[in-house]
Write a structure and sequence with these properties.
Mean pLDDT: 86
Number of domains: 1
Shape: globular
Protein name: Thioredoxin-like fold domain-containing protein
Order of helices and strands: HEHEHHEHEEH
CATH architecture: 3-Layer(aba) Sandwich
Strand content: 15-25%
GO molecular function: thyroxine 5'-deiodinase activity
Radius of gyration: 16 Å
Largest sheet: 5 strands, mixed
CATH class: Alpha Beta
């Protein structure tokens, strides 16, 4: 991904659409500071599934409402459906076909390894796998999160894609 984009970095973005902060502004604002660094999105266990943490009906009854209620994923099909909805949501500001979306396993292997819920984004040095920065516990201090991502992505080294 990084080589194709001509950079030395990639972002790993752990996403869950039921977090109202994520869908209200975090996803789009973080994309805006990415400076062309390619993103690999991984859909996680839900942050606030309607059948576990309804947040007073926030899923469907506020300006942050979603198209449908999303419960705790009971199988890969349910998680894949939520990932597809999130991909379509993000393509609304990133562009159709521009979102590279994967999903975590049902045993939440990546969520555990990256402590990624409710959502986290990491900037990774592609050649070494070294984490340059991450957004830390969400959804707090968005101004600080955006500044960290912007700084890490602004320092992108452009890599020649020609021999």
């Amino acid at each position: 991904m990084a080589t194709e984009a001509g950079t030395d970095r990639v972002m790993i973005c752990f996403d869950a659409i039921t977090c109202p902060f994520f869908r209200a502004y975090a996803a789009e604002d973080m994309w805006k500071v990415s400076n062309g660094v390619p993103m690999l999105h991984v859909y996680l266990r839900e942050a606030e599934p309607c059948d576990v943490f309804d947040a007073g009906g926030m899923h469907l009854m506020t300006p942050l409402k979603m198209k449908r209620r999303i419960p705790w994923h009971k199988n890969e099909g349910e998680r894949a459906e939520a990932a597809k909805d999130t991909k379509l949501f993000m393509e609304g500001f990133m562009g159709k076909g521009k979102v590279n979306m994967w999903m975590d396993t049902m045993d939440d292997t990546l969520e555990a390894a990256y402590e990624a819920r409710p959502w986290r984004w990491y900037v990774i040095e592609a050649s070494t796998g070294k984490i340059i920065t991450g957004t830390n516990l969400a959804p707090f201090n968005m101004k600080g999160k955006l500044a960290k991502l912007k700084e890490a992505c602004a320092g992108v080294v452009k890599v020649s894609t020609t021999a």
